[in-house]
């Protein structure tokens, strides 16, 4: 838990102190200002929070201009809505459904107080580009009159979202708003969030709920990485059992467009194609017959298959202006025997360029603007061959200035890419932590700086991209803080401070009266990193070596399992054994001894919060399920330490044979407790997760899921058909088998030494 949430990190403090308005202010002389004044003095709009938060309100994304009188107004159901719009206007519907769903308000009228909604072109000016101004709005809040004015329809919709976020309950059926004027528009045109469904399929109603939440945060594009979760009418074998139908995706697309969100298909090709190439029908199209990862880029039949899949997704998403042509990690461009050019760095890059140019031409004919991962194996000197109008979806400070300059010359715009999830297990690394023996600042800190940093490198940004990969199988409910943060800094680049952004998110997502959620998130992150730290790795016994990695075929082929060896069993003759479990895992056991109390507090906090939050209560159910899996891992390690102690006492300590048997039985019972806790926790986690998603790798109407592992990528979530990937490391311990062996040893030792045994027998049903 953050014991001092009001204190700023040094990096955040430097951001404040670098504010030119602060530095130039006559009343602030940093050279003589005592440090304690920085932390405890009253703050103005140039301080650590903006005027809205300083007045007791929160809004995410933070607006561009805030002019407040310092007074509040109060409104209730007696207010009336006056909409100078068409009856089915989205903003009007959003206002009515929003106030009813969030607050139980209906605005039935009965007084002269009015909320006016209107579109008035020109209210956002001052040299702001048309595509940005169209999303702008002005929110005028005065006693008896509130005006939500959009520069265009989208801007009006965003103004309504701001109005909904600002409403603050003050008494029974009365709400306050800050008196003043908010003028707002985005800094960047596109604000993408990423739905990666390669290892799960959300329910349609879940995705609609996500679209509503995304619109609430003013995200306006979703990169829908659908893989085999679509039926693909041209090639139905690709679609997994129960995959979304064309009509379902069309319904979802219309739902998104109504909320000014582009539902942009992401089709993985020409690499990451195991979901296609695992099927016998397409095996002959592989770039290498020994790999299901990559399709041959020099085979016309393969290219036609890809275009068929593109066409299927275009047909499913009418009205969408973009298409994300993945080109993700195309490690082996040109390796196919049908490619005439020698397989080397230059030709790999050129084949990639030729592919992108061909697809771009095809997409242009189909009225889709093309996005792509512009990356390896592309060489910087080949960038200028790429088509103008292409959007590069993966730009960050890791790019060279030469790379960005060449993209600018080619007429390529960019998305500032921030990943909220890579390979970490259970919960994202949002906050500073030690991960894999390396200190990191956290994904939120990186995202808060990214837009400004890449703009300073010369990038011609068109938007931001908030990635949330499904590789490790995290629940999408864990991603909202990340998605909202990237959207925030795509709307108002570089502000507010990260800590305010986090606080604003918690207010908007859970409600103004929710408990201190930041501490809960940090506790979940700490528990998840502990879960990940307890395992050893060994060469996999579950899967074959891989095909290769980004360095080439046959490189990095080893695959590893997460394992934890059980304490050594004793000899039945004299109880002699090889000790060392507690010594080897002393650090983890010590950490578990601390975390068990923190986890208990975390679970209690989540239980408390579940009845206090006013929004997104299901999100807390998911977080609670994660906390219980973390608790299971903590308890398991502690019990294993106790087991090792019991077994060592039985061997080393003196005493009667009866006392030695008692020690062995104690170890046996502890192993049983591990199994009992797993049996208690696991079904509840599955039930919780499957409220929002379908059973993983399910069979539907006689069609079975074809589960073939990717032979280049080894995703944690792909190691099991179901959600059991989370407990797969525990399964590898074979605890039940170990306990049964110990039971046999106990029986043999007790019989040889004429000791009666109790506590080893299976529990009877009547007990």
Automatic annotation (TrEMBL):
Keywords: Glycosidase, Hydrolase
Cross-referenced InterPro entries: GH, Glyco_hydro_20_cat, Hex-like_dom2, HEX_bac_N, HEXDC-like
Chain ranges of the Glycoside hydrolase family 20 catalytic domain: 241-378
Domain Beta-hexosaminidase bacterial type N-terminal positions: 57-185
EC number(s) recorded for this UniProt protein: 3.2.1.52
GO MF entry, a single one: beta-N-acetylhexosaminidase activity
Gene Ontology terms describing biological process: carbohydrate metabolic process
Pfam families listed in its UniProt record: Glyco_hydro_20, Glyco_hydro_20b
Enzyme type, top EC level: hydrolase
Family: Belongs to the glycosyl hydrolase 20 family.
Annotated PANTHER family: BCDNA.GH04120
UniProt name for this protein: Beta-hexosaminidase
């Amino acid at each position: 838990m953050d014991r001092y949430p009001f204190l700023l990190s040094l990096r955040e403090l430097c951001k404040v102190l670098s504010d030119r308005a602060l530095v130039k202010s006559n009343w602030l002389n940093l050279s003589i200002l005592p440090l304690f004044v920085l932390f405890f003095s009253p703050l103005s709009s140039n301080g650590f929070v903006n005027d809205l938060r300083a007045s007791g309100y929160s809004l995410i994304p933070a607006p561009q201009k805030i002019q407040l009188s310092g007074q509040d107004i109060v409104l209730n159901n007696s207010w009336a809505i006056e909409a100078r719009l068409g009856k089915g206007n989205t903003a009007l519907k959003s206002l009515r459904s929003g106030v009813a769903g969030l607050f139980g308000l209906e605005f039935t009228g009965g007084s002269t107080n009015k909320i006016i909604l209107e579109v008035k072109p020109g209210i956002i000016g001052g040299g702001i580009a048309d595509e940005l101004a169209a999303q702008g709005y002005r929110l005028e809040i005065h006693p008896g009159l509130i005006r939500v004015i959009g520069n265009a329809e989208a801007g009006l919709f965003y103004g309504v979202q701001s109005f909904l976020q600002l409403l603050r309950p003050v008494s029974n059926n009365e709400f306050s708003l800050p008196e003043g004027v908010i003028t707002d528009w985005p800094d960047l045109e596109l604000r993408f969030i990423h739905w990666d469904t390669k290892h799960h399929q959300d329910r349609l109603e879940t995705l609609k709920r996500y679209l509503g939440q995304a619109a609430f945060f003013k995200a306006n594009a979703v990169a829908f990485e659908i893989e085999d979760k679509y039926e693909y009418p041209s090639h139905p074998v690709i679609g997994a059992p129960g995959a979304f139908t064309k009509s379902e995706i069309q319904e979802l697309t219309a739902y998104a467009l109504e909320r000014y969100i582009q539902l942009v298909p992401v089709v993985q090709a020409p690499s990451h194609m195991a979901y296609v190439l695992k099927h016998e029908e397409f095996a002959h199209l592989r770039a290498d017959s020994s790999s299901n990862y990559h399709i041959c880029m020099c085979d016309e039949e393969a290219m036609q298959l890809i275009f068929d899949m593109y066409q299927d997704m275009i047909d499913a998403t009418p009205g969408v202006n973009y298409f994300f042509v993945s080109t993700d990690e195309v490690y082996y461009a040109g390796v196919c025997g049908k490619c005439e050019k020698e397989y080397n760095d230059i030709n790999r890059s050129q084949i990639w360029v030729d592919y992108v140019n061909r697809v771009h031409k095809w997409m242009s004919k189909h009225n889709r603007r093309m996005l792509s991962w512009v990356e390896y194996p592309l060489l910087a000197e080949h960038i200028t061959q790429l088509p103008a109008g292409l959007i590069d979806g993966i730009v960050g400070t890791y790019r060279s200035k030469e790379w960005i300059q060449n993209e600018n010359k080619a007429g390529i715009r960019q998305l500032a890419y921030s990943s909220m999830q890579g390979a970490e297990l259970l919960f994202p690394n949002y906050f500073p932590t030690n991960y894999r023996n390396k200190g990191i600042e956290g994904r939120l800190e990186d995202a808060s700086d990214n837009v400004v940093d890449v703009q300073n490198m010369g990038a011609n940004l068109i938007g931001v991209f908030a990635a949330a990969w499904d590789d490790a199988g995290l629940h999408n409910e864990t991603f909202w803080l990340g998605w909202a943060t990237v959207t925030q800094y795509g709307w108002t680049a570089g502000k507010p401070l990260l800590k305010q952004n986090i606080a604003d998110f918690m207010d908007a997502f859970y409600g103004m009266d929710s408990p201190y959620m930041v501490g809960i998130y940090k506790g979940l992150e700490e528990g998840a990193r502990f879960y990940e730290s307890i395992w050893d790795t060994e060469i996999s016994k579950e899967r074959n070596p891989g095909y290769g990695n980004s360095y080439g075929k046959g490189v990095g082929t080893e695959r590893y399992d997460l394992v934890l060896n059980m304490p050594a069993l004793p000899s039945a003759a004299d109880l002699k054994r090889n000790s060392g479990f507690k010594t080897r895992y002393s650090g983890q056991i010590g950490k578990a001894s601390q975390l068990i109390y923190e986890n208990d507090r975390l679970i209690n906090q989540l239980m408390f919060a579940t009845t206090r939050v006013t929004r997104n209560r299901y999100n807390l159910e998911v977080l609670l399920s994660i906390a219980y899996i973390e608790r299971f891992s903590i308890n398991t390690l502690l019990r294993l330490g106790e087991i090792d102690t019991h077994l060592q006492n039985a061997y080393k300590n003196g005493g009667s044979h009866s006392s030695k048997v008692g020690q062995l039985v104690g170890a046996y019972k502890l192993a049983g407790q591990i199994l009992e806790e797993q049996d208690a926790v696991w079904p509840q986690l599955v039930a919780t997760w499957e409220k929002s998603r379908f059973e993983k790798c399910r069979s539907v109407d006689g069609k079975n899921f074809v589960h073939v592992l990717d032979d280049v990528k080894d995703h944690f979530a792909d190691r099991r058909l179901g959600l059991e990937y989370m407990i797969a490391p525990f399964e590898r311990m074979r605890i039940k088998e170990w306990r049964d062996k110990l039971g046999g040893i106990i029986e043999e030792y007790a019989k040889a030494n004429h000791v009666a045994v109790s506590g080893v027998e299976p529990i009877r049903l009547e007990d």
